[in-house]
Amino acid sequence: MKDINIEEKEREFQAKIDADIKIEPNDWMPAEYRKTLIRQISQHAHSEVVGMLPEGNWITRAPNLRRKAVLLAKVQDEAGHGLYLYSAAETLGSDREASIDDMHAGIAKYSSIFNYPTLSWADMGMIGWLVDGAAISNQVPLCRCSYGPYARAMVRVCKEESFHQRQGYEIATTLANGTPEQKAMAQESFNRWWWPALMMFGPTDAASKHSALSMKWKIKRVSNDELRQQFVNVTVPQAELIGLTIPDPDLNWNEEKQGYDFGTINWEEFNQVVQGNGPCNKERLDARRQAKENGMWVREAALAHAEKRKAKMAS
Amino acid sequence: MSSNEWPLWEVFIRSKQGLSHKHVGSLRAADAENAINNARDVYTRRSEGISIWVVESKLISASDPKEADSLFDPADTKIYRHPTFYEVPDGVLHM
């Protein structure tokens, strides 16, 4: 009897999804749908938060006040994005604190791109242009995701990300049009970020283990390979326009498919970074753990203050 | 859940004078004042609002989606509550 009931509910649920009716927090949903969303949204939230670290590295060394104000505003946005996403995950019953602790323990993942170091100022340009650019390609289809709170969070995030990408491209353009040393700095940085940016779209469609169900449930709308191809198609002309060379000897325009063919991604490197062996995995997790421990007194003090005020108002 | 986690608040923003407050999201804060300050930082960084309401999430009562049919279906059959239900002769103006 119970099984028939669940089957019926699953059918109704899928019918809603197929009719593009959004799922809201209190609606019935299959346990696996909930679990998939909690995993994806909290990973996304962790990525926003860890993503502040590589850029935070350059706030005190920005070349002028304008760049510094912009970088600060951008990093503040990333904190906000993390918060929208943790809130969206909480609507599914996810425990925010536990999920953050899972990330600190290395159980929950975040985007592997943030395990690469930021070695020069040009990296601030490449992160904005390429990393945020790739993130936008991923996030725009998520604005139509079947889960309401996630889709709404993504609308806010996408609005804010477009400034991020533009400020990054502006940095890259300024360097590329600068002295020979500045141009070399831009090219060197581009060479380091190009391939990791392509890895951000995740494994190939053939190797992606979560994709089929996510597509059926409209959590995911466009496949990893399609998104990656779109990103290459729009980014190559942007690089050429400012005189940067794509570090891929196999890159070629394919007239027939109206897109670029490009070389094979180093999936071994991708897997190593995902498994925790990237250049900065340890440093990033240490920084997050320390931030939590060192900030704990603020939480406690604010709560104590709130209690005290409540008591005072009652008396 | 750790004991020193701040409570959850729902945030409502009035985008400009003359419009009602609209739900924009939620956040955690120690008390109402802290929640308003955090909401200012998180939800109005680009001039999205001129007024903020916050309310602790646990204080909100909501209708049950499972009862949506019995709650809202009755309205569907009462189309005579809409002006388009009525026939008006051609040539009638200002109605």
Task: Summarize the SSE layout with pairings.
The complex is a heterodimer of chains A (315) and B (95).
Chain A: H1 2-18, H2 31-50, H3 52-56, H4 65-90, H5 96-104, H6 122-142, H7 148-176, H8 180-199, H9 211-216, H10 224-241, E1 252-254, E2 259-261, H11 267-277, H12 281-314
Antiparallel strand pairs in A: 1-2
Helix pairs in contact in A: 2-4, 4-7, 6-7, 6-8, 6-10
Chain B: E1 8-14, E2 22-28, H1 32-43, E3 51-56, H2 68-76
Antiparallel strand pairs in B: 1-2, 1-3
Question: Could you describe the 3D structure shown?
Answer:
The complex is a heterodimer of chains A (315) and B (95). In chain A, strands 1-2 form a two-stranded antiparallel sheet. Chain A has 315 residues and is mainly α. Chain A starts with a helix and ends with a helix. Chain A is built from 12 helices and 2 strands; from the N terminus they run ααααααααααββαα. Chain A is globular and about 65 Å long. In chain A, 69% of the residues lie in helices and 2% in strands. In chain B, strand 1 and strand 2 form a beta hairpin. A 3-stranded antiparallel beta sheet of chain B has the order 2-1-3, with helices on one face. Chain B is α+β, with helices and mostly antiparallel strands and 95 residues long. Chains A and B meet through helix 4, helix 5, helix 7 and helix 12 of A and strand 2 and helix 1 of B.
List the defining traits of the structure above.
heterodimer, A: 315 residues, mainly alpha, two-stranded antiparallel sheet, 12 helices, 2 strands, 69% helix, B: 95 residues, alpha+beta, Ubiquitin-like (UB roll), three-stranded antiparallel sheet, 2 helices, 22% helix
